[in-house]
Amino acid sequence: MRAFTYEPPPSRVIFGRDAFDVLAVEVARLGARRVLVLSTPGRRADAELASNRLGLLSAGVFAEAAMHVPIETARAARAAAARLGADACVAIGGGSTIGLAKAIALESTLPIVAVPTTFAGSEMTAIYGLTEAGVKRTGRDPRVLPKTVLYDPALTLTLPARLAATSGMNALAHCVEALYAPDGNPVTSLLATEGIRALSRSLPRVIEDAKNIDACADALYGAWLAGMSLNATSMSLHHKLCHTLGGTFNLPHAEVHTVVLPQAVRFNREAAAVAMRTAADALGAADAALGLFDLAVRLGAPVALKDIGMPADGLDRAARLATENPYANPRPIDFAGVRDLLERAYCGVRPT
Ligand code: NAD
Question: What is the CATH number of domain 12-156?
């Protein structure tokens, strides 16, 4: 066995039905007395509910989180936190809301209590993103890792099917790339493999019946493992491509992941044969790329970039951007190979 270093994230995790009920206890446990509650505008009611549950511990609600954390929103949220004298943040929502809490913590070191309501996995990572003048910058910083995470499946029962499916596919992408990450180790592979198992068995059940709380709990469990896999390893071509496509062409984050993942896995199929075998077995499929593509179809999720707003004349530019800087990937990255991958993703070709 190769030598390795593994540093588990020090987050405290409360998992299960009614986990949201202990919000005030968990906030008090951190010693916080004035909490700013964050959400997107559409989920303000969740934030108000959290604020009510916090009672005197709540300093107010900031319900303006937006996809990709625009710097203007981050500045407004930081100003609100300072004005209200906040000493902690509660982020209730998906990756966008948790991302906003991270933007605040990056400058203020305020502790975050995350209450995820999608399956994207951001709550378990020290990775942040900020978008300025149309360019998304990401980084890692231990200050942005949530101190406490409350996984309550009841909060995911309202997820529209498309968002449940695509945020779950986003989580699957973290697991798959962790399996062939250059800095992966036996522990991260265990997390990633179990994450793939949990997500692939639960997501079809969630889509079939959005009110199936056991299926939602299983998907949240997979999301948790996916976030830990992402946090512990370096991502490769798939995440790089999604970052480029999302940032340059303003495509919806989770949908881009859903479309690109089977094609990126096909690209790396032979170069990461052992990881692909593990992923295929966890998916219960003969082949990882085909298993992921067929899962997306089964979930009713998009499988073609042309269907989620990608312009056909942007493929050359995307391939150029994704190949201009070197990064680790099982198969060497070249313009022609990535251009072919993007063409397949654009058309939604089954990755045989
Ligand atoms: P999101 O947070 O952007 O939410 C999408 C929409 O769903 C929003 O309008 C939101 O209000 C709504 N929503 C959220 N939960 C809901 C619920 N339970 N019921 C009904 N509606 C709900 O979606 P996401 O996919 O979770 O996050 C995407 C963002 O997260 C991207 O910006 C991505 O870069 C980031 N991300 C970051 C990491 C990380 O580790 N830093 C990991 C994964 C994703």
Answer: 3.40.50.1970
